[in-house]
């Protein structure tokens, strides 16, 4: 059972709102993730997932469960691999916050980007479908599917630098010199935007569910940061894994790509460009610096929630220790992009 959720309330609400669902269901919390708590619901009628906002006071605009539900409700009919949306509850009286229920997608989930449990010959196909699925997302025209108002107009990175600066300041628990240099530099050097699409915002291997027996993405998860913006944001965020050290997560720097079977960054970028009709992409160091700054802001939020006793994952303390290293690497990338 999930100790941090009102199981009887969930059972009662679901049995009343989901036709045919009996109340004798088991609810368990998924162990992964630092942000929106997610739970597995097992019943005689099938298996589902429930996703809610975190506990405690939240930063403005963060953890927008309602936006996530709207987005997957649009993408699912388009044939894009997301869980099947079932129901959104905006009545805070049920669980204390909004939540939604979706189908539970079965398959393989990889936490380690080096794919140690996959044969070398099977690694490239998994990375290829990951890139192809991202290109598929970026090919969806927001206005054509009713998502034209899902993000604000204008330069996405300019908005995001401003947004994450505010989020970082709202969660700030200490002064970090690299961040204090990074914020004004990013603000002054935002690159121009040439395309606009739906972007995931946190596209990496552990946010995907792969088919159990073939290289196919069955579902893209965790749409909390999704919006309308520059597709280079997603590509650069994915590409950043090739410059992040191997850490048992998505990092790949130091991998022997020829021996491992994992594509190089150049191969990934070429595949993405071929699928999206691009001639190439700009120098990625600015984008790496931005994404690392954003990660710094996210980790700062995790640390603040941990200090306040509201972290949604017991591993929050480990994550919080990444704050200073992330800030240092972000500034290193900024220096590679010309920052002084």
Give the number of DSSP strands. 9
Fourth-level CATH superfamily of the largest domain: Aminoglycoside phosphotransferase (APH), C-terminal lobe
* Beta-strand share of residues: 5-15%
- Going by helix content, strand content and strand pairing, the class is alpha+beta
The CATH architecture of the largest domain is Alpha-Beta Complex
Tally of DSSP helical segments: 12
Poorly predicted segments: none
Oligomer: single chain
Query: In CATH's first tier, which class of the largest domain applies?
Result: Alpha Beta
Pfam families: APH
Protein name: Phosphotransferase family protein
Domain Aminoglycoside phosphotransferase: 27-257
Q: Helices, strands, pairings?
A:
Blueprint: H1 7-17, E1 26-29, E2 38-43, E3 46-52, H2 65-75, E4 85-89, H3 92-95, E5 99-103, H4 120-139, H5 156-171, H6 177-188, E6 197-199, E7 208-210, E8 217-220, E9 227-229, H7 232-239, H8 257-260, H9 265-276, H10 285-307, H11 316-320, H12 323-336
Antiparallel strand pairs: 1-2, 2-3, 3-5, 4-5, 6-9, 7-8
Outline of the structure:
With 340 residues, this protein is an alpha+beta fold.
């Amino acid at each position: 059972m999930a100790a941090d959720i009102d199981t009887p309330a969930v059972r009662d609400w679901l049995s009343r709102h989901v036709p045919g669902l009996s109340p004798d269901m088991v609810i368990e919390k998924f162990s992964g993730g630092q942000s929106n708590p997610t739970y597995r619901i097992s019943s005689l009628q099938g298996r589902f997932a429930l996703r809610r906002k975190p506990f405690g006071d939240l930063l403005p605009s963060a953890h927008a469960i309602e936006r996530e539900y709207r987005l997957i409700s649009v993408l699912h009919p388009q044939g894009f691999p997301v869980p099947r949306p079932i129901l959104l509850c905006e009545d805070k009286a049920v669980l204390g916050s909004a939540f939604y229920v979706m189908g539970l997608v079965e398959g393989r989930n990889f936490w380690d980007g080096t794919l140690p449990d996959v044969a070398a010959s099977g690694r490239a196909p998994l990375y290829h479908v990951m890139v192809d699925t991202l290109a598929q997302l970026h090919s969806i025209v927001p206005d054509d599917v009713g998502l034209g108002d899902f993000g604000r107009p204008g330069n996405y990175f300019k908005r995001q630098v401003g947004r994450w600066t505010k989020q970082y300041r709202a969660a700030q628990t200490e002064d970090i010199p690299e961040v204090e240099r990074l914020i004004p530099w990013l603000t002054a050097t935002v690159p121009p935007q040439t395309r606009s699409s739906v972007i995931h915002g946190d596209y990496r291997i552990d946010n995907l569910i792969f088919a159990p027996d073939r290289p196919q993405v069955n579902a893209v998860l965790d749409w909390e940061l999704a919006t309308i913006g520059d597709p280079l944001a997603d590509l650069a965020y994915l590409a950043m894994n090739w410059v992040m050290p191997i850490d048992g997560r998505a990092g790949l720097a130091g991998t022997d790509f020829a021996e491992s079977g994992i594509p190089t960054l150049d191969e990934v970028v070429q595949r993405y460009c071929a699928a999206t009709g691009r001639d190439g992409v700009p120098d990625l160091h600015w984008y790496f610096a931005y994404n690392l700054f954003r990660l710094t802001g996210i980790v700062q939020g995790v640390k603040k929630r941990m200090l306040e006793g509201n972290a949604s994952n017991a591993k929050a303390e480990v994550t919080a220790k990444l704050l200073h290293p992330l800030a240092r690497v972000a500034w290193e990338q900024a220096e590679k992009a010309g920052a002084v």
